[in-house]
User: Fold this.
Amino acid sequence: MDPFSAEGELLTIHNAFHQGQYQAVLDFDTSSLSQSNITTARVLQLRAQIANGDIQGALTSIEKEKGPDFAALKAFAQHSKGDTLAATKQVEQLVEKTSENATVQILGAIVLQAAGRTEEALSLLSKHQGNLEAIALITQIHLQQNRTDLALKEVSAARKWAQDSLLVNIAESWVGMRVGGESYQSAFYVFEEIAQTPSSTSPKSLISQAVSELHLGRLPEAEAALNQALQNNEHKDIEAVANAVVLATLMGKRDEQERYLAELRRGREGHALLMDLEEKGRLFDQAAGKYTPKVAS
Assistant:
């Protein structure tokens, strides 16, 4: 039986993880799981611990474990705390020896993509055997490449055999927000349902709802969802802060924009939004340097 199917024993912990309910993942009772699924559940719990910001605690636990799954987790934890060189080196060794391992494929691809090695990340993910998280990650990478056509192809193929999967619904909604038009509304319905259902709500799902509201031009509604995410965000999900910067900018709230920018810099200096802003500022200065200002006499 597929452990992630509706009848599978990993469905609850798997869905909780991808809904961003990290504490629920950590609290999940693994004592009744079959031996073959214990490692998968433990990997999800350690990833949830990292997502909650306790990277050092996760690393301490990982050091006690053996096998490629936990070696991949160690690389991912190193990546999460900013040690890109060590993480990448560890992944390279794992790919050489255990590229068929699902955890190596997922976490290794995340590290490689973050290091700008997109083709290597996609090559590693292409080895998956019907892994929905691999499909979701491939979809994300194609969207980052501005290859919406390939992302759409990926989720359309997965929909044929995993039509009831939460992860396929989420990946399809990512694509919908890039396609636009009526797809904005469809994506909103998916994220709103997850975010507003008490059993599945989390800062992560509220951020997704807020982003879909932004795409629909509903700024006050986006602000309400994002404020809810920030208030419920005990572990300070940095993506909530990054999206708060964007929202404050769109709403013309300069003081809030500066406050959230400062918070983002303190939380993750190398965040993609900060890097993009820095690049755009540099390009603007280069363009402005080509012109001599005229001063009226």
